[in-house]
Amino acid sequence: MSKIGKRLKATDSKFDREKKYALLAALSLVKETATAKFDESVEIAIRLGVNPTKADQMLRGAVSMPKGLGKSKRVVVVAKGDKAIEAKDAGADEVGAEDLVAKIQGGWLDFDSLVTTPDMMGQVGKLGKMLGPRGLMPNPKSGTVTFDLGRTINEIKAGKVEFRTDKGGVVHAAVGRASFSAEDLYENAMELVDQLLRMKPATVKGTYMRSVTVSSTMGPGVRVEIANIGTRATTAA
Predict the structure, then answer these.
(1) Distance from C-alpha of 176 to C-alpha of 232, rounded to nearest angstrom
(2) Which of 45, 47, 59 minimizes the C-alpha distance to 200?
(3) CA torsion sign, 211 to 190 to 182 to 144?
(4) What is the mean pLDDT of residues 156-171?
(5) Are 22 and 218 in contact (CB under 8 A)?
(6) pTM
């Protein structure tokens, strides 16, 4: 049997792929099945009962993970003058104006988040076709088009995560690393769940949260019981 086959067999012995688990228990299973030689990212996928083709049901926003994400994000900023200085002082990994826009247009994408001041959106707008599909385009709703650069950069580096519904109505987001405790992963995941519940469009009919799955980079997806997902657990039991 190949190494991959042995790994899958060992994983299957840990949990039932068809069963749905309480979120905290599911995250504990994700940790158990994260057996790669590196610290895997842990992600959550939430399928919502929304129609993303309708403007009021295309959800987009950002949430600050209370337990961080285990690594500092690379943040680049398009700004000029005093705002460029503010961005550098706040720890931005790269700051520029038209020159930085041109660099990105040339194919440079070595960053996790792009922030810009409102007055530079005319320039940054040129990057829409490149950054939009990658989820990197600055947007006022996610707080990445702002004059408050210092606070924004600090929040992103501390664990602020941008999210949006994809064409299938699914929201994907990282909630930490496999080395985190299940409780810390749970707190981060619930921060996103709570935010999505607060953002439920008034026009959505029927079930809002359709399905939830958690997984690590190399591990299998663990299905989550969502009946009481809006109620926070108090213990890992």
Answers:
(1) 18
(2) 59
(3) positive
(4) 89
(5) no
(6) 0.71
Q: pLDDT of 43-77, one tens digit each?
A: 999 999 999 889 889 998 889 899 988 877 899 99
State how far the alpha carbon of 16 is from the alpha carbons of 12, 22, 218, in Å: 7, 13, 17
The Cβ of residue 16 has, within 10 Å, a number of other Cβ atoms equal to 11
Cα separation, 54 vs 205, in Å, equals: 13
Other CB atoms closer than 10 Å to residue 71's CB: what's the count?
Answer: 14
Other beta carbons within 10 angstroms of residue 207's beta carbon come to 11
Structure tokens, 7: 């790994």
Q: Which residues contact 187 (CB under 8 A, 6 or more apart)?
A: 66, 67
Phi, psi (rounded to 5 degrees) for 201 = -65, 140
Cα angle 119, 120, 123 (rounded to 5 degrees) comes to: 140
Both tokens assigned to 212? 């939830």
Helices (H) and strands (E) in the chain, counts: 8, 9
Residues near 193 by beta carbon (within 8 Å), at least 6 away in sequence: 23, 46, 209, 212, 229, 230
- Count other C-beta atoms under 10 Å from residue 6's C-beta: 10
Query: How many C-beta atoms lie closer than 10 Å to residue 120's C-beta?
Result: 23
Residues for the chain: how many in total?
A: 237
Helix (H) or strand (E) holding 192: helix 182-198
DSSP letter, residue 21: B
3-state secondary structure of 172: strand
Task: State the SS3 of 119-137.
Answer: HHHHHHHHHHHHHHHHCCC
